[in-house]
Design goal:
The chain is of the alpha+beta class. Helix content is 35%, strand content 14%.
Length: 86
């Protein structure tokens, strides 16, 4: 059963029903994201990304496993390069 309904205007605008605004926690000026999933459209409040979403966006393919020492050495090299006297 549908949570609520909206009517599309001639200008392509909709009003978000109060029940939906309350569930999403949005108000004036809030940004909504529209996403297609398996043939349906999902609307959500922008900025609600899990750490898994961020990781998948940054690393679409699994990075090679590295030892903790490799990571520390990489950070050291970056800091030295970034803060080297010019």
């Amino acid at each position: 059963m549908a949570l609520a309904q909206s009517r599309l205007t001639a200008q392509g605008q909709i009003s978000v029903p109060a029940e939906v605004r309350k569930k999403l926690g949005v108000g004036p000026g809030s940004i909504l994201e529209w996403e297609e999933r398996n043939g349906t459209v999902v609307v959500r409040r922008a900025g609600r990304h899990t750490s898994a979403d961020v990781h998948q966006a940054l690393f679409p393919q699994a990075p090679a496993k590295k030892e903790p020492g490799d990571t520390k050495e990489g950070v050291r090299k970056y800091i030295r390069k970034r803060h080297a006297r010019r």
